[in-house]
Amino acid sequence: MPSLMPALAQERGLCVSTVIGTFSSREQAEKAVRALRDRGFTEDEISVIAKGGKKDDVEVGGDMGAMGNASEGTAWGSVLGGAAGLLAGVGALAIPGIGPIVAAGPLAATLSGAVTGGVAGGLLDLGIPEDRSRYFEEEVKKGRFLAVIDTEADMVEDAARIMRDNGAADVETH
Description:
The chain has one domain. Helix 5 packs across helix 6. A 6-stranded antiparallel β-sheet has the order 3-4-2-5-1-6, sandwiched between helices. The protein has 7 helices and 6 strands, in the order H-E-H-E-H-E-E-H-H-H-E-H-E. By secondary structure, the chain is α+β, with helices and mostly antiparallel strands. Helix content is 40%, strand content 22%.
């Protein structure tokens, strides 16, 4: 069943929920994104955020798929973006208090528009409570990979199960 974009779903009065969780490795995050896509979740529903490499390694606002850098963050961004075609909107941002991050999916655009609010501010905009938003921002600071899925209410359990099956911790629905 093709999913509607979350904004369109809300416009039509459908209930949209957010599933969020963290991964300890890039490989786990990539595997989860592939499994979500295979289950029918779209790139308009899936966002992933990770701490980038050294500040000098990240080109703020750049296209991660086009960068030739081999740091963990940029390599990860390239895989999720252009190379594997898994998610659109992959880019690098410099977030005050965190440093360089790589973000893919619809949350990447939200973060680039409100850099001063950081990751927590972007999560607050999705309806994640402030204490949990700050917690997840701290997890990104520690080097964990954050996945956020905005989907219709009837797909929430599938999203959470797929994330857990692929190694996600701290999986929550809001």
